[in-house]
Design brief:
heterodimer, A: mainly alpha, 2 domains, 9 helices, globular, B: alpha/beta, Beta Polymerase, domain 2, 6-stranded parallel β-sheet, 4-stranded antiparallel β-sheet, 13% strand
């Protein structure tokens, strides 16, 4: 009974953390909102409920839940959230929220999936959900491809301007400022699509496969791609990564995305049995 | 009709001669009037810029138009004809058309591809039109020259790259930032070239220009000129993270911006690109700054090299433009030749009509009284005969108008029918 209450509070926490996720995605897309205050307040409430869920689970099992992946992920997410609140309280270091809100949300989302729900009520719903997941992820990869191409052009143009040479072919490249804007936009959209795609995929896998999907290498690769994408966004937003670093990072994320795609090619038979 | 172009330019005359021959703007109307009143002159136009003085005329009759224009120039500018003569060039007809097209297209300019010459030629044309000294042939050639210049600008990249150090700086800023709107510029020191670059940047729409100088009054003066803001020399480094473009031209004997200071600036502006233009000698900015990510440093020699490369590109493009000029000159000649045969055709028709009516008058007394119908029949028969005689030479003239043989044929017809003798 107490374990059920714990799962309930954890799911409420995920909903509260979702405000932070939305705030991050809007901020990455360059939308200026007054949403941060609300998102932070929800996040704080979320952390309290997160703590309640952990305590209840510990009381139900007579010990702190650290014996499986879900338990450790849950505690890890809680500690990250707590740490963020402490840093924000002491240093007003809000820019980290861009990375930490989505990270904590996704970790908590996965952590509350230890107890599977009943299966799909409708087969069409199941397929549509999967298609939405695939389309979102592919849209994300397309945006990342644009990021990588623009970042490569940025490198070439930067090199030309640094070397002070004027070869005619390279003069046709767009100005650095324009390329930088394209990189920011495409990176932002790429991250938003991939994040939504991963959330869709996680929820689909949760209903479809229960808990057996976690050990799957291709899904682990998806999380790694998402994590790298998150890191890229964070370094761009907080440290102003441009030029060479941004280009290399974009190419790494794109490469990782391509490998994830290849690893997931086995999804076709699931759609068309 | 002869078309003659006489003049001097930076190719043939040093500046001491050019400035002596240049016309003041206010003296041009009177000069045009005196030019076209000279014997044999039909039309005239004077182009006077700092790099060239050219007089284009159309003349008729046997008058020596070339000598007349030379004398005109000497008289108008109060110099001896023998003194100016060695510096002058002369072009006739086809060569004059080609030269006019080349001048309009800026192929003959000191800086090939510069756009000012077309504006100057348009002013000279407008003045000549106002004064009524452009009435036909020359008008057509100059108007065509404007179109040729426009075509060359559209079809080639003759004017696409910067060929002055100050403008090259602006072009580079565009390569870095794209749109310059919203960018902030800081002038450290107030050299002439820095001023010119700032003026270009101001025209390109930068958001704010700050000026700092050891002498505050000089900074105030410059800031006022650009509608900018003067800031204290001692405190300008605090502003650097907000600045996108720095033009350094101070007389400081040491580096005022080093890699150390720029590292901090770049960190504070989160690596957003920064364009540094160092036109001071000795240099104001440590060269190693260019190795930092997001920092683009150009000194006076770098800008000079960009200009040199661009000039070479323009020279290459100029060859392409010369081909267009050749094509346009041929097209113009064809049009002019078509115009040339028209008076001969009209004269031939008038001549034959004159013969016909004279013969009818001569025979009228022998024919006696004629009824109206008989009069009309004779008119119709004789007109028919004249038209049939004229048909072959007129058709042939029109057909050969665009052909080199056309001029010979026109001469033959004029001779055969004794046209122009009365």
């Amino acid at each position: 009974m107490m374990a059920d209450t714990s799962t309930f509070w954890l799911r409420v926490t995920v909903l509260l953390y979702a405000f932070g996720l939305i705030q991050s995605l809007l901020s990455i897309l360059g939308r200026k909102t007054n949403f941060y205050g609300l998102a932070l307040a929800m996040f704080r409430v979320g952390v309290v409920l997160h703590g309640v869920a952990i305590v209840e689970a510990a009381m139900a099992h007579g010990q702190l839940q650290v014996e499986n992946f879900y338990g450790t992920l849950n505690i890890c997410a809680f500690l990250v959230a707590l740490l963020f609140l402490l840093v924000d309280w002491k240093y007003r270091f809000a820019s980290t929220s861009v990375a930490l809100f989505p990270l904590v949300f996704l970790m908590t989302l996965v952590a509350q999936m230890e107890r599977p729900v009943s299966t799909w009520s409708d087969e069409r719903m199941r397929d549509a959900w999967l298609i939405v997941h695939i389309i979102l992820v592919l849209a994300g990869y397309a945006a990342l491809l644009l990021t990588a191409v623009s970042a490569s052009f940025y490198l070439v143009q930067e090199r030309r301007l640094k070397s002070k040479s004027t070869p005619s072919m390279l003069e046709k490249l767009p100005p650095l400022g324009t390329l930088d804007k394209v990189i920011s936009s495409s990176m932002g959209f790429g991250f938003v699509f991939i994040t939504l795609g991963v959330i869709c995929g996680v929820l689909w896998a949760f209903v479809e496969l229960g808990t057996s999907w976690l050990g799957n290498a291709s899904i682990t690769l998806s999380f790694i791609t998402w994590g790298l994408c998150l890191l890229m966004i964070f370094m761009r937003v907080s440290a102003g990564w441009r030029g060479r670093k941004a280009a290399v990072m974009a190419l790494v994320v794109l490469g990782c995305g391509a490998m994830t795609w290849i690893a997931h090619a086995g999804l076709r038979p699931v759609l068309m049995p | 009709m002869k078309f003659i172009l006489t003049g001097l330019s930076h190719h043939t005359a040093p500046v001491e001669v050019r400035e002596r021959l240049a016309f003041e703007e206010k003296s041009l109307p009177d000069a045009l009037s005196r030019l076209t009143k000279r014997p044999g002159m039909v039309e005239g136009m004077i182009l006077s810029t700092c790099n060239r003085v050219e007089v284009a005329v159309t003349a008729e009759g046997d008058a020596d138009a070339r000598e007349s224009v030379e004398n005109f120039l000497a008289e108008a500018r109060s110099v001896e004809p023998a003194w100016v003569s060695p510096y002058l060039y002369h072009y006739n007809d086809q060569d004059a058309i080609r030269h006019m097209f080349r001048v309009a297209s800026s192929l003959d300019s000191m800086v090939v591809g510069e756009p000012q010459i077309l504006g100057q030629l348009k002013s000279a044309y407008s003045l000549a039109k106002e004064q009524g000294t452009l009435t036909g042939f020359l008008d057509q050639v100059v108007t065509r020259a404007f179109n040729v210049a426009k075509r060359i600008r559209t079809e080639t990249e003759i004017g696409s790259s910067a060929v002055s150090v100050s403008y090259a700086a602006v072009e580079l800023a565009r390569d870095i930032f794209g749109n310059l709107k919203g960018k902030r510029v800081l002038l450290v020191g107030a050299g002439e070239m820095a001023e010119a670059a700032a003026r270009h940047l101001s025209r390109a729409g930068v958001a704010e220009i700050y000026v700092t100088n050891r002498t505050r009054s000089r900074a105030d003066l410059l800031a006022e000129e650009f509608g900018g803001q003067a800031i204290d020399y001692e405190g300008f480094s605090n502003m650097l993270p907000e600045i996108d473009i720095i033009i350094a031209s101070s007389g400081a004997p040491h580096y005022i911006l080093t890699t150390g200071s720029m590292r901090e600036v770049m960190s504070r502006r989160r690596n957003r690109p920064m364009f540094l233009i160092d036109i001071a000698v000795p240099r104001n900015i440590e060269p190693a700054v260019n190795k930092m990510e997001g920092v683009f440093l150009y000194d006076i020699d770098d800008l000079g090299r960009v200009v040199k490369d661009n000039l070479q590109t323009r020279k290459n493009v100029a060859e392409q433009a010369e081909e267009i000029i050749n094509e346009e000159v041929q097209r113009m000649l064809v049009r002019l030749k078509t115009r040339e045969v028209a008076p001969t055709i009209v004269e031939l028709q008038e001549h034959l009509e004159h013969v016909r009516s004279a013969e009818i008058e001569r025979l009228r007394s022998k024919l006696g009284a004629l009824s109206l119908q008989q009069e009309e029949a004779i008119e119709a028969i004789t007109r028919g005969i004249v038209n049939k005689i004229a048909h072959a030479p007129i058709t042939e003239l029109r057909r050969k108008a665009n052909d080199p043989e056309g001029i010979a044929l026109m001469g033959t017809i004029r001779k055969l029918f004794r046209l122009g003798e009365n």
